[in-house]
Amino acid sequence: MTSSNPYNFVPLQPTGRNETNTSNTYTPDDMIKIYEQQFLTEVPEDKITEFLPALKEFYGIDGHTLDIGAVIFDAIADFCIIYNHKVKVGGYEILGGLVKEEVEQEEGSEAQAYSLDCKRTFFINDVELPYHFNLFIHGDSYSVLPEKESILEKLYWFVSDRFEETEANNEADNGQLTARLQFINEQLAGLGIRSMDVTTINEIVEYIDDSIIDDDMIDALNILLDNAE
What end-to-end distance do the CA atoms of the chain give, in Å? Predict the structure, then answer.
């Protein structure tokens, strides 16, 4: 007997039908769940062309409804989808206090420089992953230097080193980067996370860079800086 739900879609209750009676309607949160499954469901290569029609049939929706789901996702979802990975930013921790740093000052500048150990949590496919970094603050500017221990930190350094080797066109080191990519994917598999190609890693690292300092963390840092002056 063939399963009526071979892709293990999450059952959801429709709220009704659309104005043209061509598609079921769902709550915004359920539309996000449908959109999420569209990209995160693991599909065998020989079933790829069958998957989307099966998704539409299971939920009783059409392509226009999927398009609406994408708009809703972009507007209210608290995570992003990078290829076949669900990525979400979590909370931050400030580890220790501000450390004064000596830097060469530009003429007329008296801005003090500080460094600070921090951690930000991220989630990939709901797996919690730490990202430790040193935050360097000088005046109104800052820079981030990750450690090299956690899998997310290794993703950052893989991208950074790959960029440098591409610029240098060093084939020997490019071979080492290929081995590092294989090792990274072995570690991801051990965490139950699907493997990543270079493009996926680049985009996840970019997402981390964009998300690592948020408004709440800036407020906390400003309090620390005000107290230090």
Answer: 73
